[in-house]
Amino acid sequence: MGLVIPRGIVYHNVNDDVSALLRSTYSSLNDVAPIRKFEEKFANYIGCNYCISFPFARTAIYYALKSRDFKIGDEIIMPPITIKSILDVVLDLKLKPVFVDINQDTLSFNLENLKLAIGPNTKAILITYLFGMVPQLDYLMTLCKENELFVIEDFSQCLNGRFKDKKVGSFGDIGVYSASSTKTLDTYGGGLLVCNDENDAKCLRGHQKSLQPAKRTQLIQKIITDLIRNIATTRLVFHLFVFPLLKLINFLYPESVIKHTGDRKKEMIENLPQDWFTSFTSFQANEGLRMIETIENSDQLRKNNVNQVKSSTSTVMFPTSVKNAKSVYWQLVAYFDEPAKVQKYLQSKNIDTSTTSLEYIANLPAYPIKGDTPNANKLYYNGLFVPAYPGLSETDLSHISHVLNDLQII
Ligand SMILES: *Cc1c(COP(=O)(O)O)cnc(C)c1O
Fold first, then answer.
1. Which of 154, 264, 284, 359 to mutate to test the pocket of ligand 1 (most atoms within 8 A of CB)?
2. 137: domain range?
3. Which of 10, 315, 346, 371 is the most exposed place for a label (fewest CB within 10 A)?
């Protein structure tokens, strides 16, 4: 058997991160020109008129919602699975989240459930393209328009996903992309908001101007996080150190299996942290200008790998694309009846996997509002990552298919 296959990667090479770390200690952070240049480039890239940069996707969503005059208790349709901070932002704005279940194939809202959930107080919807899957957007957008919903698309996991050759992020009123660690375009953090309406753009530009100056320490921390993840998922380091450690944790804490993402804070927060409201930097914009040229290539490599694994694996259930949709499969997930057992078996075959590190926000014990979302439940607990990212070799890919095909006999 070859070196262990990690569950995922960072889309930088280690040298880039080291170089960025050095430069981040002295480079200027607040030059407006590169920021505007990158915003313009990103808007064009998605096919929108405007891009306004924020420090996080959650911040972009916060201001997008603030740009409309919603009343206390107005409802926003939310995905049951995403990062918790987005729920914190929605609650801080005194909106009422309504969680709608996903479709098991497209990982987007199940249209029947969505229709039932829309009522007189429903004012907004947050469409989230989980794991890089694109749903049937004609039906979804028609339903949103008929009900005059304010549509925000979170395409953090689906950059370059298309429906009928139009990129996701350009369908709704506002699109938001998180350029954070592990995403395909990673500028050491950032929330890139795109829109087409001039008044929206003006309003959001105003909010952008109200942000605090960027903090160098915050940027350096993000680069260090990227670098550590990057080194940890380097094949040899992963094989020799990280994987044995993960196995040991599994052995010592068998009930905690599966995630190993550390215990994230799951309590409700009182106030939104100030760090969420600092400016996107020109340093990050320059990284973005450089990195954006590489995305299509890495997308293509990943999609080829995904096709190969899917087509040579007959025993496993994967999400599937609908007609006219071009999904990007940021992470390939598959459903398993006994995920803990499968994880262990894959481990024994030198393949690392886990369930998602996103949060099941429709079911957080400390939060007052829950959802009844069985399909999301299944994705959260029974969906495991199958490695298919760029950089895997032919041998790796056929090993993965082989091991998956053998699952029926374990
Ligand atoms: C990574 C990710 C984010 C990250 O948002 P930040 O606020 O920039 O940290 C948001 N949404 C989704 C779906 C993500 O995968």
1. 154
2. 28-209
3. 315
